[in-house]
Amino acid sequence: MQPARVPIVDVGPGLGLGLDADQCGSLEALTAAVNDLCARAEDRRTPTAVVVRFGSVEPTTSWPGRIGIRDVTRWERATRRLERLHAATIAVAGPSCGGPALDLLLATDYRIAAADSTLILPVVDGHFWPGMVTHRLVRQVGLAQARRLVLWGNTVTADQASALGLVDEVAADLDAAAHAAVVMLGRIAGPELSVRRQLLNEATSSVYDDAIGAHLAACDRELRRIGAAAPDRPGVAGGS
């Protein structure tokens, strides 16, 4: 039986799309909802921000629950799809963040947490869940910090998450902070955001000589974009 479909809502209105992950209830339902959110964002012709909310209710089951490896594969593909959207992606974390919260945080561009947020790490029977969340942790906070979380961690407060770089903003008013982020980031959403995101992600695993080609290609793309937007603007010189 197919999981109940979780509604994707307009944010702004008209500025972006939103998903309340707490409504999903199961990994299967959340995977379907994330894919639905991504499909809606991909269909938009204008710059879009995507907001994923979670942590408004206390987690009631251990992550990831009774599932098979196919379910895990579908989930990893969905989070990767979210991570690679042209849309600007925003995570909004409430007080009680368990289950997929860390996956969703690490797959988004801008992360907002409530001042009283507690991030419950995905630990099953005493062991950290070994999905791609582990890979993202190492890339984003470094091996030493990731080791502490994966081998010895249990919970992370909002202030600790901010210090680690897991969240970008700790806010007293989540709705106001999310709206401000949608307005700010929605303007830069699109293929150009994806290019810069990719350059950042590749920088942790590539040496200069391997990276320079991608950066020069990105610079050439940017010069062409600027030239197309303002062909008569003085001060932009060509070169060979």
Please, how many domains?
2
- Low-confidence regions: none
Portion of residues in beta strands equals 15-25%
Distance between the termini: 61 Å
What series of H and E elements makes up the topology? EEHEHEEHEEEEHHEHEHHH
CATH architecture of the largest domain: Alpha-Beta Complex
Question: What structural class should be given to the helix and strand makeup?
Answer: alpha/beta
User: Could you please say which CATH topology of the largest domain applies here?
Assistant: 2-enoyl-CoA Hydratase, Chain A, domain 1
GO biological process, one term: fatty acid beta-oxidation
GO molecular function, one term: catalytic activity
Organism: Dactylosporangium matsuzakiense
Pfam families: ECH_1
Feature tags:
240 residues, three-stranded mixed beta sheet, (3,5-dihydroxycyclohex-3-enyl)acetyl-CoA dehydratase subunit B, six-stranded mixed beta sheet, 11 strands, 2 domains, Enoyl-CoA_hydra/iso, 9 helices, 2-enoyl-CoA Hydratase, Chain A, domain 1, alpha/beta, ClpP/crotonase-like_dom_sf, Enoyl-CoA_hydratase-like
